[in-house]
């Protein structure tokens, strides 16, 4: 089909500054950026990238690091026992390997923990029983000392009797052994009864703790991730309710009871025998000095073999920062940075309060890589971070748990640095290195963290790994996210997407999403001269359009939503909270809005974005597909967006990039629906638009297309200029609209009305132009000839005679146009048949609104016809 074009009524946007400033930011970006210790670019010096016109790219690597050709890459490492290979991006899915590892490690750890606590409680219960029995024996004796004794009364009376029998000088002396006072006896019994209460209370809590431990290990079924979440949730609640502290504190009750017993024993012996008391006191003092020393010494010397649960609990209380890396979830809901601590996050919507499921997953991974001493287990936990969803809300938990340094160390372990000969890095495990790269980007995206300089050379090596394109692409993403001052690193991401869209390189969907998200991130935080930005935009838009075209048949593809967001960021300006678009649901929910804005900007100035014929066809197809949601969900789209879409679709429709055969009929019908009423157009644009609509009427039999094309013609032909009416006639519009009217007799009453209205609008505009010229207009005569030669009058009469119409429609729209036409061409022999048909129609509607007007119009037509005859 021939391409037609017209000037877009929307003026093109001009750059407002010569320096690019970030146009998109999360809400946290409004605060001042914190100073960054590692702020230099990680892009390789001298590296150049060329993106070809068809998506091909040629990279010229510098000699600052060994290339893949000079690096011997060994085969894949020996698979671990029972290892499960996860698909890219599925490292944390329901059946991912990390959850199998977690469940195995958790089962071992829980078994050791609960068995240890259970054995300790058993020993505690045995000691409590023995101690309580011994203590009860002492209490039975000491308690008797507090009660009145009959023997004591008898002895006192005997002493008095003997005193009466002898005088004071002759009274015999009675020797008495030392006796404890009543106050002393009360203290002894108080201490011993307290010790018994401590001992029995310890046994009661111990029995409850045994029940808690039994309930901690239920048999949970389900997927590996479900079982891991259930276990981690129980473990978090165990710590949140201080169950370990309670169990570890149980011996303290017995130790306190023993101390009270010894105190009572020393107090009882104090007034009886000083030597025995001192000996007992010294033994007890030495025992408790050793007891407290065995608790305190491990606090200062962690390697000391004096292990004690009380020491571990004291260490947690005294140094909470060095305690478990996975604190309860409740600790993260109110966490705030101290004023002295500079903020490390530029923008990160995921830094908000974590959802429960994400917090459980994060604490599970943190528990795994902090508690385990197995290198394979730690690696599995760290690499699983690469598969976390984009909108994972608990990344702060992992960062606070120290995941980032461990990831950097794990990445370094994937290489071997030869320090004997060439001082070069040699790649050992490219697959693990790629996982560590993705995990690093997941944790640092939106922060000021940059790739460490001491391992940047291995990262450059991964970029040159041609045998592993996914690995090389992910490494390029890591470099780009650490090099916002280097446009070459951004262009390299475009080069990978260009080769992928051209079919030269096969990249996984996860890698493509990572590349697109990295491009979005770079454009968010990039600050470059205007010339570099315009050059990058010129390269980026065609690549992103091809990526969208590749996923045309995959509407639910994550690549498609990521490409749409990147295209919107590259083409459109304004301040946007990008944190909202971390969620895949949010991206898909606003896909139409983003694409309408982006594609409309491209249609407005295609040359600025490097978009030519083939790509404009892609733009037209994409924008046309967005017409259906705009029509079906009109309340969702604001009026401004509908106006933008109407302007762009008008241009594409007139250019012939949206037409029958190019897009499905249902989509074309929705496009015409959006174009009604048409946007403001110049006379030249209106003439092209009318010609295109007539072509659509001629080639389409779809009822909705016909209906909306006729309605658009009615608006365009109303009070139109001579150029527009001439275009309508020359494109055979009269016959096309008349055919639509005849088709309406079977298909649609509405189509008949719209068709006749369109023809009457054309007649009114033509006759008005004719009368305004004062003389015969040579350009209008052929139009009248075509009109009278057509079947318009015959069709009009048949339509009026076949159905019942609203009389005001006839008198207000149809007859006035016929009257004006009869004045211009009174010699045409159409008045008699028209008068007869309309007369009969008026007689069937006597008294209705418009009846008198109808008769008046018919009288005028009759008089004009009679004057010609006479």
UniProtKB/TrEMBL annotation:
DUF6535 domain residues: 99-271
Location of the region described as Disordered in the Swiss-Prot/TrEMBL record: 1-94
Pfam families, A to Z: DUF6535
Residue stretches spanning the membrane: 123-143, 252-272, 278-301
Polar residues bias spans: 1-15
Keyword Nucleotide-binding: no
Record-linked InterPro entries: ARM-like (IPR011989), ARM-type_fold (IPR016024), DUF6535 (IPR045338)
Keywords of the record: Membrane, Transmembrane, Transmembrane helix
Bias kind Basic and acidic residues: ranges: 78-87
UniProt name for this protein: DUF6535 domain-containing protein
Origin species: Mycena alexandri
Source organism phylogeny: Eukaryota, Fungi, Dikarya, Basidiomycota, Agaricomycotina
């Amino acid at each position: 089909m021939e391409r037609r074009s017209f000037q877009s009524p929307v003026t093109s946007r001009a750059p407002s500054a010569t320096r690019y400033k970030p146009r998109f930011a999360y809400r946290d970006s409004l605060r001042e950026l914190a100073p960054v210790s590692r702020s230099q670019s990680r892009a390789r010096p001298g590296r150049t990238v060329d993106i070809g016109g068809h998506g091909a790219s040629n990279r010229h690597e510098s000699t600052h690091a060994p290339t893949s050709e000079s690096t011997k890459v060994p085969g894949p490492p020996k698979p671990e026992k029972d290892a499960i290979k996860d698909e890219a991006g599925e490292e944390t899915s329901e059946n991912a390997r990390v959850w199998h590892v977690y469940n195995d490690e958790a089962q071992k750890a829980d078994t050791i923990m609960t068995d240890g606590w259970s054995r300790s409680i058993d020993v505690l219960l045995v000691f409590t029983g023995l101690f309580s029995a011994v203590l009860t024996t002492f209490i039975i004796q000491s308690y008797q000392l507090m009660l009145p004794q009959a023997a004591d009364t008898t002895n006192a009376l005997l002493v008095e009797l003997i005193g009466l029998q002898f005088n004071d000088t002759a009274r015999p002396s009675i020797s008495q052994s030392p006796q404890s006072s009543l106050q002393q006896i009360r203290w002894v019994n108080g201490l011993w009864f307290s010790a018994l209460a401590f001992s029995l209370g310890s046994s009661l809590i111990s029995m409850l703790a045994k029940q808690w431990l039994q309930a901690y290990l239920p048999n949970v079924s389900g997927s590996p991730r479900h079982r891991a979440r259930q276990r981690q949730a129980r473990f978090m609640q165990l710590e949140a309710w201080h169950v370990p502290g309670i169990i570890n504190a149980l011996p303290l009750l017995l130790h306190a009871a023993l101390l009270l017993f010894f105190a009572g024993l020393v107090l009882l012996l104090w007034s009886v025998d000083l030597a025995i008391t001192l000996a007992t006191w010294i033994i007890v003092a030495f025992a408790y000095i050793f007891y407290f020393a065995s608790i305190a010494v491990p606090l200062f010397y962690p390697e000391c073999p004096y292990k004690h649960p009380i020491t571990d609990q004291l260490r947690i209380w005294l140094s909470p920062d060095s305690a478990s890396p996975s604190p309860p979830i409740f600790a993260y809901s109110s966490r705030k940075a101290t004023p002295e601590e500079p903020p490390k996050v530029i923008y990160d919507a995921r830094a908000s309060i974590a959802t429960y499921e994400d917090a459980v997953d994060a604490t599970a991974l943190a528990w795994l890589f902090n508690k385990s001493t197995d290198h394979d287990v730690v690696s599995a936990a760290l690499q699983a971070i690469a598969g976390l969803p984009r909108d994972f809300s608990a990344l702060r938990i992992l960062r606070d748990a120290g995941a980032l340094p461990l990831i950097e160390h794990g990445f370094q372990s994937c290489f071997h640095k030869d320090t004997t000969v060439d001082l070069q890095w040699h790649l050992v495990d490219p697959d693990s290195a790629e996982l560590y790269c993705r995990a690093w980007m997941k944790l640092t995206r939106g922060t000021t963290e940059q790739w460490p300089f001491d391992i940047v050379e291995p990262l450059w090596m991964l970029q040159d790994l041609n045998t592993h394109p996914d690995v090389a692409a992910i490494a390029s993403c890591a470099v780009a996210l650490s090099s916002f001052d280097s446009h070459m690193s951004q262009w390299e991401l475009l080069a990978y997407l260009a080769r992928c869209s051209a079919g030269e390189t096969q990249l996984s969907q996860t890698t493509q999403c990572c590349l697109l998200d990295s491009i979005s991130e770079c454009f968010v935080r990039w600050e470059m001269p205007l010339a570099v930005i315009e050059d990058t935009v010129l390269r980026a838009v065609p690549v992103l359009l091809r990526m969208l075209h590749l996923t045309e048949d995959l509407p639910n593809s994550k690549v498609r939503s990521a490409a749409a967001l990147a295209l919107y960021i590259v083409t459109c300006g304004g301040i946007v909270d990008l944190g909202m678009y971390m969620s895949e649901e949010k991206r898909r929910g606003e896909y139409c809005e983003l694409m309408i804005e982006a594609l409309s900007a491209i249609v407005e100035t295609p040359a600025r974005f490097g978009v030519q014929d083939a790509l404009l066809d892609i733009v037209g197809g994409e924008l046309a597909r967005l017409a259906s949601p705009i029509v079906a969900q009109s309340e969702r789209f604001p009026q401004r967006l509908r106006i933008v879409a109407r302007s762009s679709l008008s241009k594409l429709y007139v250019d012939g990039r949206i037409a029958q055969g190019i897009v499905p009929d249902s989509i074309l019908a929705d496009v015409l629906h959006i174009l009604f009423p048409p946007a403001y157009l110049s006379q030249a644009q209106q003439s092209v638009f009318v010609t295109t609509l007539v072509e659509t009427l001629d080639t389409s039999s779809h009822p909705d297309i016909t209906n909306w094309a006729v309605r658009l013609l009615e608006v365009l032909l109303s009070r139109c200029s001579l150029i527009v009416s001439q275009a309508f006639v020359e494109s055979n519009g009269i016959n096309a609209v008349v055919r639509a009217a005849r088709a309406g007799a079977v298909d649609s009453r509405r189509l008949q009305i719209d068709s006749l209205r369109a023809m009457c609008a054309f007649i009114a505009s033509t006759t008005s132009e004719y009368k305004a010229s004062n003389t015969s207009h040579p350009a209008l005569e052929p139009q009248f000839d075509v009109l009278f030669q057509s079947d318009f009058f015959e069709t009009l009469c048949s339509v009026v005679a076949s159905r019942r119409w609203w009389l005001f429609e006839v008198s207000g729209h149809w007859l006035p146009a016929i009257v004006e036409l009869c004045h211009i061409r009174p010699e045409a022999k159409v008045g008699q048949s028209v008068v007869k048909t309309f007369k009969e129609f008026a007689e069937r509607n006597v008294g209705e609104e418009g009846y008198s007007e109808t008769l008046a119009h018919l009288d005028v037509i009759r008089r004009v016809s009679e004057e010609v005859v006479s």
